Amino acid sequence: MQYTIFQIDAFTDNVFKGNPAAVVPLEKWLPDEVMQKIAMENNLSETAFFVPTHNGYHIRWFTPLTEVNLCGHATLASAHVLFNHLGFNKKEIKFESKTGELTVKKEGQFIVLNFPVSELKEIELPQNIKQAFGKRPVKCFKGREDLLFEFNNEADIKNLQPDFQFMKTLDTRGITATAAATSEKYDFVSRFFAPIEGINEDPVTGSAHTMLIPFWAKKLGKTELMAKQISARGGVLHCKLLGERVEIGGQAITYLQGEIFV
Question: Mind telling me which PANTHER family this protein's record contains (predicted)?
Fold first, then answer.
């Protein structure tokens, strides 16, 4: 069978920046093992698949190793495909997912995700946690699936020396490191690691911001924030706290459109 595939750079307006995601629109679901093999073949942090429903689309996301419950950049990439390549002409897309309903709207050049907040609980720093980063964090918090570590400053985040094998021993899907931003253009910076799911460092991570937005909104006393993920590729996220939901806005650009044969 032949299927169209797109590769989209999300949370950027330049190719080779942001976070690349593969998007495969479907009329009906392929077997799970086939979708997992496609994601492994793509070898990107996420491949998104979606099928039409009566009021929108059902979306699923796969890393090269496993299916995940929530992914921001691949949802943004999927919306970009619908708006720019598949003729979707409404302002809002409704996606059904394992995390519930996700809505995505277009605002000028930006695509805005509406996701549920990940509640945080402060926990003790794991034993020997300095080994994970090469530097000891200040605090640790547990979210829905991930851990969040706060550091003293942006330089700490830039200079992290992640030990991916040690990170695999932690009881978590992913690990977010964050600190206040040095530049006045941004409120906070972050990096995200998920080696247990085959992603040593994710370039830009929308799902991590379901933790980061409420964390920094409370810390800084504001509900609208600008965030930068300072991976090698980098990405910018426009953030807003809306009670138990967050909005995460960014741009996207098409890198590739092609066909796959499976």
Answer: PHENAZINE BIOSYNTHESIS PROTEIN, PHENAZINE BIOSYNTHESIS-LIKE DOMAIN-CONTAINING PROTEIN
